[in-house]
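Project standup — Tuesday

K.O.: blocked on the structure for the chain from last sprint. Re-posting the sequence here as requested.
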Amino acid sequence: MANELPSKKWPAVGVGGVWLAGFLLVVAGLAGGAVAQEVSTRTELRVCADPNLPPYSTEALDGFENRLAEMIADELGIPVVYTWWPQTIGFVRNTLAARRCDLVMGTASGEELMQNTNAYYRSTYAMVYRADQDVQPETLADPYWLGKRIGVVAQTPPANLLSFYGLSNIEPYQLNIDTRADQPARRAVEDVASGATDMALIWGPIAGYFAKRQDVPLVVVPLLSDPGPARLQYRITMGIRGDEPDWRHWLNGFIRDHQDEINRLLASYEVPLLDRAGNLIVVDTAAAP
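H.V.: unblocked you, prediction finished:
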């Protein structure tokens, strides 16, 4: 969830800080049911997206959300049209709530600024560290991390775990950022690869994608069972306006009917996928869409 949809890009608990400040500004636009009428026939799939936020979406259309949007459009037999806006303060207000587009491809379940579809994947935060270090811990509780330099995006759930485990040598990265200027979570992974930090705690889809693209081998360890005060696993949905029940019903049917294809797509981008019990799902990516 990072003003980069804090609720999606690196999820946080509840509606935090700037999102709460913007909440009242968008409620009327999203609820708008007194005057708005749901579209019955769509001639294009109008997607709200960030143009510079891999692995999710890019203007080059090579993010997994771009590819998922194409799958939906193919099912509908219509083209995809994007409204580009950096996922920072005002993203929902200036896109979905303004009715410039009709679908946000990813947001955490329970996001108050949008109506959620059913979840199409569940993931978790992860540790990222170099494969050549002498110990390869499976949890944050491992004493190996005491005194090590650890990168974390401020105000994300893993930040709360660091003090719980007595880890104080922290390299912070900014949460609320315009993606045209910086991508802190990507930089956190790159800092691990360069040796500037010993480990980073990053939302799994970002951790897996960028770890795979470094010049040195990195290990990605999804956090599945660490005790502590922070929730680390989140269900990710699509986001729509609250006055469109038929659209939500259609999207839920699409997710149900194409879940295996969606899983293969996500796994091909190194997204750690969890089942309802919080266990890792092993996916054969050979037939990824």
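K.O.: great, moving the ticket to review. The chain has nine helices and twelve strands. Residues 1-7, 13-29, 31-35 have pLDDT under 50 and may be disordered.
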